[in-house]
Specification:
By secondary structure, the protein is an alpha+beta fold. The chain is built from 2 helices and 8 strands; from the N terminus they run ααββββββββ. The chain has helices at 19-44, 54-73; strands at 77-83, 86-92, 102-109, 117-123, 129-132, 139-147, 154-160, 166-168. The longest helix has 26 residues, at 19-44. The protein starts with 18 loop residues before the first helix and ends with a strand. Keywords: Membrane, Transmembrane, Transmembrane helix.
């Protein structure tokens, strides 16, 4: 039996061969990598629903409600359908409502503001309003129908593709 003398110790391993060293290096490296990934994701996918000035936005909402009430007092409603790449609107109104030559129709996508668009609908000889539907894609849309002077508005939520006709009423 040979005994190891007490004055001789086992040779020390280099630091890069120690598992605890790598464990301590990987922890902060992982958190930094995750932080960089999250920051880059947040920068490329901005949240667009945040409003800076809530007071002004609240005042604007009150004005919008007045426009909807005016549309209700005129007895306005519209029947919307999409045929052969055209949006057709049949607007119903009472005698108090002003005559209309053209309407502005705005489409706001529920989640993707890049898809939002606006078209001008002109009145045909048969009384229907017609606009181009080439930008309209499948999905959930908030539709706003307004005259040029923006005195009233009809706002309604629709799902495209439309199944037949969609009735738009001021809400």
């Amino acid at each position: 039996m040979s005994a190891i003398p007490s004055n001789q110790q086992e040779p020390k391993r280099p630091w890069y061969k120690e598992p605890w060293t790598w464990f301590l290096i990987i922890l902060p490296f992982t958190s930094v990598t995750a932080a960089v990934y999250m920051i880059s994701t947040f920068n490329t996918h901005n949240v667009e629903m945040v409003v800076d000035d809530y007071y002004k936005k609240g005042k604007a909402i009150n004005q919008e409600l007045g426009r909807i009430k005016l549309a209700k007092s005129y007895g306005l409603s519209a029947i919307m359908r999409v045929e052969q790449g055209k949006i057709l609107l049949d607007v119903n109104k009472n005698a108090q409502a002003p005559e209309l030559a053209a309407l502005s129709i705005s489409f706001y996508h529920s989640t993707l503001s890049k898809r939002d668009f606006q078209v001008m609908a002109t009145q045909r000889a048969n009384g229907l309003f017609q606009a181009d539907a080439s930008q309209l894609s499948d999905g959930n849309w908030q539709v706003t129908v307004e005259p040029h002077d923006k005195s009233w508005k009809i706002q309604h939520r629709i799902t495209v593709p439309l199944k037949g006709e969609q009735i738009l009423i001021p809400r």
